[in-house]
Amino acid sequence: MTNGFKVIGLSVRTTNKDAQAMQDLGKLWGQFFAENVMEKIPNKASGEIYAIYTDYKSDYTEEYTTIIGVPVTTLNEVPEGLTGREFGPEQFQKFTAKGEMPAAVGNTWMEIWQKDKELNRKYTYDYEVYGAKSQQGANSEVAIFIATK
């Protein structure tokens, strides 16, 4: 069980159909770094970057919202143009993507989608945590948390 968290960042509505998410998320990550969004976020709870997948229309084959942001201690100040959201406590199964990014994360999601039914996914929200280990070339690691029933 994870206690939940608050996050501020950039968001986009996308879908995995026709590789749309790869395009949209590539752009979103590009914008996050190009616009130095990390520096604009007040009340950071950590230096980690979270990628959160939420507002699922049904499951991973339909539309969902992605937020790339940073966990914060309060949503009292959300800078203009950014999204602030609170995510409640959930039960998660953790996966670790290991290797060159972003390929390793993509490959881990492929494995998750193949096990979709047996994981008993809840589709409230899932998230990735990009910490210190996420920028280490072939030795990178990113944690992926999947909400389960």
Automatic annotation (TrEMBL):
Database matches in SUPFAM superfamilies: Probable bacterial effector-binding domain
Record flagged with keyword DNA-binding: yes
Domain AraC effector-binding residues, every copy: 1-149
Entry keyword annotation includes Nucleotide-binding: no
Gene3D superfamilies associated with the record: Regulatory factor, effector binding domain
Positions of transmembrane segments: none
GO molecular function: DNA binding
Keywords for this protein: DNA-binding
UniProt-listed InterPro entries: AraC_E-bd, Cass2, Reg_factor_effector_dom_sf, YobU-like_regulator
Protein's name in the database: GyrI-like domain-containing protein
Organism: Chitinophaga sancti
